[in-house]
Design brief:
Shape: globular
Largest sheet: 8 strands, antiparallel
Number of strands: 10
Structural class: mainly beta
Oligomer: single chain
Helix content: under 10%
Order of helices and strands: EEEEEHEEEEE
Radius of gyration: 15 Å
């Protein structure tokens, strides 16, 4: 298995939607090219996180940290990133929100990318994702 070229990914913005206790977060990823052996793909994707036990009001998130178990433990975040014709699981173990400034709120995700699950040819990896939520 190969190392996933995580350094190629640039996270641009994030959106929070849904209802209190059942929130969703989307993190937009700048399009990138992905190659493995003889196969290559232009990837236009995002990180999708669903079923998050969080409030959705930014004022209730500002400056807070939330911790979560990994799948399949109860309370896990249903997360994935789509490439190579598969929704590749992402476990998010911690979400931190910064202070709101100029219509943006910093967001940090501590994540484990379970790329071996869908047999992508890439090894699992851990990644801290930093981006801003557009308010």
């Amino acid at each position: 298995m190969e190392e996933f070229p995580i350094e190629q990914l640039s996270f641009t913005t994030a959106r929070i939607s849904g209802a209190d206790g059942n929130a969703s977060i989307e993190v937009v990823v700048e399009p990138f090219d992905l190659e493995l052996d003889e196969y290559s793909e232009s990837v236009d994707t995002l990180i999708r996180l669903d079923s998050i036990n969080l409030p959705v009001d930014p004022k209730q998130l500002e400056g807070k940290e939330f911790n979560f178990p990994t799948n399949p433990e109860p309370g896990y975040i249903d997360g994935s990133i789509y490439f190579f014709a598969a929704h590749n699981p992402i476990d998010v173990t911690c979400i931190r929100f910064g202070e709101i400034s100029e219509g943006k709120m910093p967001l940090t995700l501590e994540s484990i990318w379970v790329l071996e699950y869908e047999s992508t040819g890439f090894k699992n990896l851990s990644k801290t994702v930093e981006v801003c939520v557009e308010l």
